[in-house]
Specification:
It comes from Actinoplanes cyaneus. This is Helix-turn-helix domain-containing protein. The protein is of the alpha+beta class. The chain has three helices and three strands. Strands 1-3-2 form a three-stranded antiparallel β-sheet. Helix 1 (11-18) packs across helix 2 (22-31). The model has no long low-confidence stretch (mean pLDDT 91).
């Protein structure tokens, strides 16, 4: 089994991380919303750095 590069997430891995479906992520991509992603040879990958930045931007009610 190929080793998953921890700097990239598949839609299935991101769906699990966020407790959503892979279909939800596909809908976000189709609508042009959500985190940035790579499309390489028909395969969708999310860079972990982009996911973490998206999560940071989405943080609500952060206090110091």
């Amino acid at each position: 089994m190929p080793q998953q590069d921890t700097t990239h997430l598949t839609p299935a891995h991101l769906a699990k991380r966020w407790s959503v479906t892979a279909g939800h992520l596909a809908n976000q991509r189709s609508a042009g919303i959500g985190p940035a992603y790579l499309k390489l040879g028909g395969r969708i990958l999310y860079r972990l750095v982009d996911i973490e930045a998206y999560e940071e931007r989405s943080l609500v009610g952060a206090s110091a």
